[in-house]
Design a protein that fits this description.
By secondary structure, the chain is α+β, with helices and mostly antiparallel strands. It has three domains: 68 residues, 434 Repressor (Amino-terminal Domain) (Orthogonal Bundle); 78 residues; 56 residues, no CATH class. The chain contains nine helices and four strands. Strands 2-1-4-3 form a four-stranded antiparallel beta sheet, with no helix packed on it. Strand 1 and strand 2 form a beta hairpin. It is elongated, with a radius of gyration of 24 Å.
């Protein structure tokens, strides 16, 4: 997606409707600065706002992503292109989340280990030792919780029975036994509980699903 092209498209459609930036902002419940940011190409509308924006300015999501009005032929071509771009962007976001997960995991482990070592190998008062141990445990628990939240948001899982790609609830994710790339989850489609493989995107190739 080209933010500048999308911004120009939003501006032109807004003017066609006779709206000021303030009027459009009021209709879709954002600030005028947000509209200005889009139109200047400094950002694109959030997914939660796209439907309202399309309805108010009279275009569809594919035209928004393309930054232009589309005829039938262009619509089909751009629909495939925009879908691929969205999948690629989702994969990239989830890859970054997994990298953040690794960094956080290393930081939590080192911090907790350091506190435990300090409490056990250096002379100090008993209360100081207790403080270090309690702090180490707290850092570990909070770090693991944050790690699970990041990991839960960083992708999807695929059922090996029906091929359904889904995102489990945090409770299901937290309670599920797991390996490095798989987690034991209940599929919302077929209802079977099994080791489901992690996916970076909800969109999966059908051939790949059948192999599973």
């Amino acid at each position: 997606m080209d933010p500048v092209k999308i911004g120009n498209f939003i501006r032109n459609c807004r003017k066609e409707k006779g709206y000021t930036q303030e009027e459009l902002a009021d209709k879709i419940f954002v600030s005028p600065k947000t509209i200005s940011k889009w139109e200047c190409g400094n950002g694109t509308p959030d997914v939660s706002i796209m439907a309202s924006l399309c309805q108010e300015l009279g275009f569809n999501l594919n035209e928004l992503f393309s930054g232009e009005r589309l005829d039938d032929e262009k619509y089909k071509i751009n629909a495939e292109k925009n879908l691929k771009n969205m999948v690629d962007q989702e994969r990239e976001r989830n890859k970054k989340a997994l990298v953040a997960e690794i960094v956080l995991g290393i930081a939590v482990t080192l911090a907790s280990f350091t506190l435990f070592v300090l409490s056990g190998f250096f002379p100090m008062e008993v209360y100081q030792r207790i403080i270090l141990i309690v702090t180490g445990v707290a850092v570990f628990i909070l770090g693991i919780t944050g790690l699970l939240i990041i990991e839960h948001q960083g992708g999807y899982f695929q059922c090996p029975h029906c091929g359904e790609v889904f995102k489990p609830t945090f409770k299901q994710y937290f309670m599920g036994l797991h390996t490095v790339t798989k987690r034991r989850l209940k599929c919302p489609n077929c209802g079977k509980t099994s080791l489901c493989k992690r996916r970076l995107s909800k969109s999966e190739d059908k051939k790949q699903n059948k192999k599973l």
